[in-house]
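Inverse folding, one chain.
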């Protein structure tokens, strides 16, 4: 009875592992990238939609509760709402996906630090969004994105 040598079994194992990794890179990884982008985009877009749907309340919140440094409450409300409506669309479609992710990362940081009465659970949400956005910033929006399909010139 001929059993393969340890070296042959090692090569077969490495080849099987490479094939498994290539398979994961082909479908589950791009789907996971897309899921991250859609989840975070939906969180921020819904926040922006809520703000624009009741503008008077939004202005009151920025005047009384959200203390954004260096900006007037009205300008902070306009910029925050605009960012929450535009950047998630870029992120969701993966159109300038890293730009959208960086913009939302900064907005997330400002939101978490400008509301002094944020709860521990609220901070945990902001940490989760920050990690997911950082993943897109560092890894890119993935294969299921306009950025990937378009292949912008460097």
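Residues assigned per position:
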């Amino acid at each position: 009875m001929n059993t393969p040598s340890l070296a042959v079994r090692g090569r077969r194992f490495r080849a099987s592992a490479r094939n498994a990794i290539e398979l994961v890179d082909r479908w589950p990884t791009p789907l996971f990238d897309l899921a991250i982008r859609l989840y975070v985009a939906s969180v921020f877009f819904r926040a922006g939609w809520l703000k624009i749907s009741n503008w008077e309340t939004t202005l009151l919140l920025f005047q009384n509760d959200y203390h954004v440094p260096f900006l007037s409450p009205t300008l902070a409300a306009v910029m925050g709402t605009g960012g929450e409506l535009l950047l998630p669309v870029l992120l969701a479609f993966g159109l300038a996906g890293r730009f959208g992710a960086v913009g939302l990362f900064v907005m997330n940081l400002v939101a978490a630090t400008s509301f002094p009465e944020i709860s521990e659970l609220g901070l945990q949400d902001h940490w989760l969004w920050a990690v997911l956005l950082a993943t897109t910033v560092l890894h890119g929006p993935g294969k299921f994105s306009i950025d990937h399909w378009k292949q912008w010139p460097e």
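The chain has a mean pLDDT of 92. The helical segments are 6-26, 28-53, 55-64, 73-93, 97-114, 120-139, 146-150.
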